[in-house]
Amino acid sequence: MAYPTPTPWLNARAEARLANVLLYGATAAVLIFFYIPIFTLIAFSFQEGRYPTLPFEGVSLKWYAALFQNSSAGDALYNSTVIAVVATLFATVIGSAAAIVAVRYRFRFRIPFTGLSAAPLAFPQLLLGIVLLLWFSVLGRTFNFNTGIVTAIIGHVVYITPFAMVIVAVQVFNFDATLEDAARDCGATTVEVYRYVTLPLLWPGIFSAGIFAFLLSWGNFYLTYSLAGSTRTLPTFVFSGIATGSSPLYPAIATVVFIPGILLVILADRIRRKG
After folding, report:
1. What is the pTM for the complete model shown?
2. CA-to-CA distance for 152 and 249, rounded, in angstroms?
3. N or C: which end of the chain has fewer CB atoms below 10 A?
4. Is the peptide bond before 112 cis (omega within 30 degrees of 0)?
5. 65-274 CATH
6. Domain residue spans of the chain
């Protein structure tokens, strides 16, 4: 006796639509959950009242005007920029070199080298800042120096270099070494191979690593608070201001910092895709 074939509850097209709805719905829900605080902060920066409360007392740009007239905020912006730029340059160069060594070369202590190079990734920033502050305190008494921009830069380099190393290592892992062999067969020296073949092909990963390292350094609070001494950066400036009283001035600072950060991330992604 033949039995009828059971009709599927959903056909293939309906299943695909349901999967898309669930996938895109879950993604949208996560993004909304992440970005609601950010957009709320941006909205508060346009509030006219003295305190960020709901409902708004009015809409105004006066807090942005006050921000650009605040000399302390300007000094903090300058210090953050100096620390982030210098730390990024050192971290990107060191991280790129470490990534090339760890991925492309085989040597006796390769695994311990890779593990120790990436160790700061798993180290809490607060504890790393305290440990480095202890070392700089000891060295400062010995060599007669105080914590400031230089010590903050060193701390940032220690923290962000492993991130740069991991990002560049992905690019190095996918690198086609036969291109270098072809350049050598054409008579190129080792320096020329690195200059005209290796570095241009690794440049998208190196640039992305530099952008990511810059953003990590730019917004870092724990290491800066521990190692910068009396030097104020944007994170410590905002912290000290909020500790004494809230104001829409600080959401304005966050908005001014957030928008360039998003643009840098988009730029890094476009360069990575082109590469």
Report:
1. 0.79
2. 26
3. N
4. no
5. 1.10.3720.10
6. 1-45, 65-274
Question: Which SS3 state, helix, strand or coil, does residue 55 take?
Answer: coil
For the record, the structure tokens of 22 come out as 């669930």
Q: What are the structure tokens assigned to 135, written together?
A: 């070392």
Per-residue burial over 154-165, b = 16 or more CB atoms within 10 Å of its CB, e = otherwise: bbbbbbbbbbbb
Q: What is the structure's pLDDT at 238?
A: 80
DSSP letters, 68-108, are HH-HHHHHHHHHHHHHHHHHHHHHHHHHHHHHHHHHH---T
The closest alpha carbon to 205, from 143, 156, 273, belongs to: 273
pLDDT at 261: 77
Give the separation between CA 25 and CA 125, rounded to whole angstroms: 34
* CA–CA dist 63, 38 (Å, integer): 17
Residue with the two structure tokens 């300007």: 74
